[in-house]
Amino acid sequence: MLRPLQEFINKHFTELTKEEKDEVISSLRKGAYPSNDFYLMTGLAAVIATLGILTGNTVVVIGAMVVAPLMLPVLSFSMAGVKGDLAMFNRSIRGEVKGAILAILIAIVVSYLMPIYDLNAEFLLRTQPTLLDLGIAFASGLAGAYAIAKRLDYTLPGIAVSVALIPPLCVVGISIGLRLGLEFTFGALLLFISNIIAVNLAGYIVFWVVGLGPTWYWDEEETRKKVYNSIALMLLVAIPLGWIMWTSVEEKYLASETMDVLEGQLSGIKYAKITGLTHFIENGTWHILAEVESPTLLDSERVAEMQYALSERLDREIDLELKITLIQTVDAGD
Question: Rounded to the nearest 5 degrees, what angle is found at the Cα of 83, between the Cα atoms of 26 and 201?
């Protein structure tokens, strides 16, 4: 079963030479042992990104992504997983975790020292992962792993920008430092973790394809062990990624269905429209807050009807709350 797959890969992709493999493995092995330079650049990138997010300056945030060296440890534990090297895998994770904690702590301090701050698009953009974010991270991981394997170092800054690992960490620190609530903290942290998982899985795939994984000799005990370790570690990152993707799809679907039902319920009120929709899930209940502009107030009985319609459509328990802004409509007289 596995040998035809290996033959297909060998036929359509150029395998690295032994010298190239050794060079790539050596480079990524160093990435599993972050140096003081790694932590210095991560800290500076965190300062830049935090200030960029607080001021809503997209260019500054992009600059921080280029400075941040967080991509290399991620691809290092991709390599460790492919090689079945559990020790290298653990060291890579520890290095990435230490870098992430450093970035969060710096963001907490910087944001706490800021006298005034308003939520802006740069902040909110990093508070909830979507399928698009996962797609970008996965594609960036493919590009980053391939660039390292083929020694295309000139592409790495652009890849670092596309995957954006440092901004979500800074948003976590900002939300803690400014006490903005757990929703923003966990949302940004989930985005960072999902990006890491997507990049890691992409790295697995590329490193296998270019021939950096163990060869398929099932009669050798050491090789079997490494292959088993590699498959187990791949599943370790693939399963959470699948769960995140499924959750994102489900929430997108539920939000779309909610909007459709509410618009249908308001269709009988001239000029009424939905201007905002937020939601969260607690103890299995879908809590929905809809912002509505309407020329007339809606009584609790009408809201209960809308809540019932939502429960029927979504087939789950719904708690609906409307925030109504009264509007005045004036028609020209005859």
Answer: 100
Question: What is the dihedral sign for C-alpha 160, 162, 168, 171?
Answer: positive
Q: Mind listing the pLDDT tens digit for each residue in 249-285?
A: 777 777 788 888 888 888 878 888 888 887 777 777 7
Alpha-carbon Rg for the chain, nearest whole angstrom, is 25
For the chain, what are the domain ranges?
2-213, 251-326
**What would the two tokens of residue 241 be?**
């990624």
Instruction: Record the pTM.
Output: 0.67
Distance from the first to the final alpha carbon of the chain: 81
Band (pLDDT 50/70/90 cuts) for residue 1 is very low
Query: For residue 273, what are the β-bridge partners?
Result: 293
Backbone torsions φ then ψ of 293, nearest 5 degrees: -100, 130
Q: Tell me, what amino acid is at 77?
A: F
Token pair, residue 267, equals: 């269709």
pLDDT of residue 234: 60
Q: Output the pLDDT for position 332.
A: 66
Q: Domain 2-213 falls in which CATH fold?
A: Glycerol uptake facilitator protein (1.20.1080)
Q: Give yes or no for a contact between 211 and 16, defined as CB atoms under 8 angstroms apart.
A: yes
281 forms beta bridges with 286
Paired tokens of 166:
């440092």
- Rounded Cα distance between 93 and 86, Å, is 11
- Judge whether residue 297 has pLDDT over 70: yes
Task: Please provide the size of the chain in residues.
Answer: 334
- Return the CATH fold of 251-326: GMP Synthetase; Chain A, domain 3 (3.30.300)
